Automatic annotation (TrEMBL):
GO molecular function: flavin adenine dinucleotide binding; N-methyl-L-amino-acid oxidase activity; sarcosine oxidase activity
Organism taxonomic ancestry: Bacteria, Bacillati, Actinomycetota, Actinomycetes, Kitasatosporales
Signal peptide per UniProt: none
Record protein name field: N-methyl-L-tryptophan oxidase
Principal EC category: oxidoreductase
Domain (FAD dependent oxidoreductase): residue spans on this chain: 6-362
Gene field: solA
Source organism (scientific name): Streptomyces phyllanthi
Keyword annotations: FAD, Flavoprotein, Oxidoreductase
Gene3D superfamilies: D-Amino Acid Oxidase, subunit A, domain 2, FAD/NAD(P)-binding domain
InterPro entries: 3-OH-isobutyrate_DH-rel_CS, FAD-dep_OxRdtase, FAD/NAD-bd_sf, MTOX
């Protein structure tokens, strides 16, 4: 007989590691299965930093989840003894009508979130690394900051293990089955087979391979993160002086970036938001091409002119997009024993701790007190 568990979590990246922790902390017998190593750099949860913000232009419905995520980041830091989150403040720059500014402001007003609206002159004075156009405006919120993805995944994995979860790395899941009255769910891997009462499947960019009958088209987009050593040195970019930011141009192009987090040598990270090349997760082009580096340096010259002093490094990552760029977090519509989490569409990491809590709720209670109607897969089923 194969070994049997209460819950098997497939995929121990951002979402799966958080689910494994919340389930194990509730006393469930948990098996976690991950094809790569712990906190690896081959999926969507690497690169040292992720923006966390509270006023949310993507949809105001995310705000209560962000507030709960904030509480859970703080708890995770205490429970794990790791630095998983740094509050730096966050700045949105764009024209008054841009989604980044107008949508964020609308969300802040709806939820009464603490914020300040800045003119272009205010931005230049308070955050002198930025060169906004005279018509640009800024939205600043103090509670925004940086989530540290590798440290977060490591913290969740360590705490899951401390609560008794069994975690297998370098073990790829080949398939699963979860139907039939009274039967348990089965998972077959390249090393063996296991059974459980419930499955949580959080496969990131591999959603279309592990969840073929979910009926949701999750497309993978290659994204590049760039680190530059600022011409000015990292001083003006240090985390106690520099916010995380998203900057939207009138043509819709967005960049986002971070303060310098890795000391004098590490530089500051910046990236284009979306605009990536459609890719297959198993054959992602992980090389960074010289013309990509040139394009980013040139883009920065007129906006954050001291940032592209010298190019340090770059890395590829994957967005896993749904058609409407909202998440899928739900019980599988056709398999009640299975809970799914996918399609985080390039903006999921800031929710990791609360998604872990929701997945544990769904897998143990079949329901959650959090409002997740927006994440129902049936809205985008093809
Ligand atoms: C460049 C970049 C910048 C981003 N910036 C931000 C940001 O600033 N703020 C923000 O909130 N979000 C951001 N995101 C998005 C966020 O990082 C993702 O939404 C989040 O990390 C997705 O987590 P996940 O658990 O779905 O995927 P992953 O962390 O990739 O986890 C999926 C796991 O499943 C495993 N797996 C897949 N198939 C199998 C199998 N068959 N067997 C076993 N294991 C399997 C994979 O190996 C992987 O470990 C960014 C993403 C990228 C790429």
């Amino acid at each position: 007989m194969p070994a049997s568990y209460d819950v098997i979590v497939v995929g121990l990246g951002g979402m799966g590691s958080a689910a494994a922790y919340h389930l194990a902390a509730r006393g469930r017998r948990v098996l976690g299965l991950e094809r790569f190593g712990p906190a690896h750099n081959l999926g969507s949860s690497h690169g040292g930093s992720r923006i966390y913000r509270q006023a949310y232009f993507e949809d105001s419905a995310y705000v209560p989840l962000l507030l709960r995520a904030h509480e859970l980041w703080e708890k995770l830091a205490v429970d794990s003894g790791r630095e998983v989150f740094i509050e730096t403040g966050g700045l949105m720059i764009g024209r008054e009508s841009s989604a980044a500014f107008a949508g964020t402001l609308d969300s802040a007003r709806r939820w009464d979130l603490d914020h300040e609206v800045l003119t272009a002159a205010d931005i230049r004075r308070r955050f002198p690394t930025f060169r906004p156009a005279a018509e640009d405006v800024g939205f600043h919120e103090r509670r925004a900051g940086v989530a540290l993805p590798e440290a977060t995944v490591t913290a969740h994995l360590e705490l899951a293990q401390a609560h008794g979860a069994e975690l297998h790395f370098a073990e790829g899941v080949l398939g699963w089955e979860a139907d039939g009255p009274g039967r348990k769910a089965w998972v077959v891997t390249d090393r063996g087979a296991y059974t459980a009462d419930r499955l949580v499947i959080a496969p990131g960019a591999w959603a279309s391979k592990l969840l073929p009958d979910l009926g949701v088209n999750v497309t993978v987009e290659r994204q590049v993160m760039y680190w530059f050593q600022p011409e000015s040195g990292v001083g003006p970019f240090s985390a106690d002086r520099h916010p995380v930011y998203i900057w939207e141009d009138p043509d819709g192009t967005r960049i986002y970036g971070f303060p310098a987090l890795d000391g004098a040598e590490g530089g500051a990270k910046v990236a284009f938001f979306r605009k990536g090349v459609p890719s297959d997760p198993d054959s992602l082009d992980r090389r960074i091409h010289p013309d990509e580096i040139t394009a980013m340096s040139e883009y920065l010259r007129t906006r954050i002119p001291t940032l592209p002093g010298s190019f340090l490094k770059a890395a590829a990552c994957m967005y896993a997009n749904t058609a409407d760029e909202h998440f899928v977090v739900s019980q599988h519509p056709d398999h009640p024993r299975v809970t799914v989490a996918c399609g985080f569409s390039g903006h999921g990491f800031k929710f990791v701790p609360v998604v872990g809590e929701i997945l544990a709720d769904l897998a143990t209670e079949g329901t959650t007190k959090h409002s997740i109607a927006l994440f129902d897969p049936r809205r985008v089923r093809v």
